[in-house]
Amino acid sequence: MARLLPGSEVLGEKASHIHYHATFMKDMAVLPFHPSAGFRLKIKLLTKGLVLVAIPMSSTLFAATFLSIALLIAASPANSAEDNMGKAKSFAATAERFGKEQSYEEAAAMMQKALQLDPKNAYFHSRLSDFLFAAQDDDMAALKEIDLAISIQKAPRADFLSTKSIILERLKRYQEAIVCSNKVIALKSVGVTAKSSYHARKMLAYYYNQRASIRKNMNDLQGAVSDLTLAIQLDPEANDLYVHRAQVNAMQKHWAQVIPDAERISKLSFRGAPVLRKREAYLLLARAHTGLKNVEKAKSTYLVAMKECLDDRLILNEAQKYFASIGDKKNADSVKKRLDSLDQDYVPFK
User: Fold this and answer.
1) How far is the C-alpha of 301 from the C-alpha of 204, rounded, in Å?
2) Domain count, the chain
3) Domain boundary among 75, 100, 126
4) CB atoms < 10 A from the CB of 327, how many?
5) What totals of helices (H) and strands (E) does the chain contain, helices first?
6) pLDDT tens digit sequence for 321-340
7) CA-CA distance, 207 to 188, in Å (whole number)?
8) How far is CA 196 from CA 162, 191, 193, 231, 232, in A?
9) Domain endpoint, select from 75, 101, 129
């Protein structure tokens, strides 16, 4: 914003055909006007705006003075910074569009351009980390970017710490990952109860599920089950949580605990549970019945699974082995024929 010092005059008469040129020297702009004016107007750029040095001016120079001030404001550092911010946001928006198209390398390149213009933007650093991680190109670079985001952001953010935890888990730095995950849960669990908003409960359930994954990789299977149970209490409609808990219980051969979670998912429609989740649920259920020596239940589960998940090779292979192990030659031979026909129909991509 331009300010006039005391003693300056600006009169309202209109000037005509006044020619001028501006010379910029570091932080001083010198604007000579028409020679007949007999003076030069100096405008100094200060941190808090433009200050017009108090020089009385004739009314004939009003238009030229106004245009000159506009020229200086357009060329001022503040406006240049605003332009950079606008360009940075534009690059970031383009990056997000690439991200939605799963073009993660292009998204990362656009976000890097945004950061060249706005290097202290914590959110931009976090999104660059996300894109690098999704591209599966350089996890160490992704970790560096999220560390920068965390260092720039003064107050701790659960989403930044969660991202770091996920990256560390993929790097198999589980102890560091669990420390981050603990911080996330401590931040997000404050005040969250069964009566809290759906979004708050769902987010906290997500973070418990994330920590369960880390604990599973650390072989803390009981701790993983505990986290998943807490997650289910917060978000009982999240079907993936039941599959995850059944998987961890199966790793411990706690077959009786596997059955209710696996049954829940196996009974859902394909709209309620994607085919991969249905397949996993059927396999877990069949293995649980096998582990508990419930032969007929295991057999019927495999038969239903083959019907529901048509021509799924993993189910067919496992079912064929199971039928052979219990001496059910008829079903074993039937499944083997189906597998052979699938092999004949298979045409490799060239």
Assistant:
1) 34
2) 2
3) 75
4) 7
5) 15, 5
6) 999 999 999 999 999 999 99
7) 9
8) 21, 8, 5, 14, 15
9) 75
Could you tell me if 94 and 110 are in contact, meaning their C-beta atoms sit under 8 angstroms apart?
yes
Give the span between the Cα atoms of 155 and 172, in whole angstroms: 27
Hey, is 338 helix, strand or coil? helix
Residue 8 lies in a domain: yes
CA terminus-to-terminus distance, the chain: 66
Tell me the per-residue pLDDT of 2-39, one tens digit each, with 9 for 90 and over: 433 333 333 333 333 333 333 333 333 434 434 444 43
DSSP element (H, E) containing 58? none
DSSP per-residue codes, 213-247:
HHHHHTT-HHHHHHHHHHHHHH-TT-HHHHHHHHH
In a domain, 80, yes or no: no
pLDDT band at 193, cuts 50/70/90?
confident
3-state secondary structure of 23: strand
Query: Which pair of tokens denotes residue 104?
Result: 């993660």
How far apart, in whole angstroms, are the C-alpha atoms of residue 162 and residue 187? 11
Strand partners, 23: 30
Sequence letter at residue 188: K
Whether 118 maps to a domain, the answer reads no
CATH of the domain at 273: 1.25.40
Give the whole-angstrom CA distance, residue 164 versus residue 153: 14
Task: Name beta bridge partners: 293.
Answer: none
Domain span at residue 307? 256-350
240 touches 278 (CB < 8 A): no
Locate all alpha helices (DSSP H) within the chain, ordered by sequence.
62-75, 77-100, 104-117, 122-135, 139-152, 158-170, 174-188, 198-217, 221-234, 239-251, 255-266, 275-291, 295-308, 313-325, 329-345
Q: Taken in order 325, 328, 329, 332, is the CA torsion positive or negative?
A: negative
249-272 burial code (b ≥16 CB/10 A, e <16): bbeeebbebbbebbbbbbeeeeee
